[in-house]
Amino acid sequence: MTDQKEMESASHHVVSPKIYVIILFALILGTAATVWASFLELGPWNPVIALAIATGKAMLVVLYFMHVKYSSKLTKLTVFAGIFTFLTLIGMTLADYFSRAWGQW
User: Fold this and answer.
1) For 14-71, what is each residue's pLDDT tens digit?
2) Which domain holds residue 26?
3) In whole angstroms, what is the distance from residue 60 CA to residue 57 CA?
4) Do residues 21 and 40 both lie within one domain?
5) What pLDDT is attached to residue 103?
């Protein structure tokens, strides 16, 4: 009886191949959008658009291929903590960069 409960609690969510094919086409579409956006003249918005598309593609990879979407709350919290730490470090770097008096020394 105990083995049955352990097996049920250790079971994993099975993702259908249809979902993987949909994610594949979404990633291909995201790659095409990145290439298309690279040919547009958007001035300082080019890297912003490219990073937004890359972030969307990264979210799909993390959620589906790393199975975070179907994981426990602790796994989701760990991923969120990593993203929060990364954004904090980027924010501190940009704060330092923008606060410098470039060319005024």
Assistant:
1) 889 999 999 999 999 999 999 999 999 999 889 899 999 999 999 999 999 999 999 9
2) 15-70
3) 5
4) yes
5) 66
What burial letters (b/e) apply to 7-43, b meaning 16+ CB within 10 Å?
Answer: eeeeeeeeeeeeeeeebeeebeebeebbeebeeeeee
Contact indicator for 54, 34 with CB cutoff of 8 Å: yes
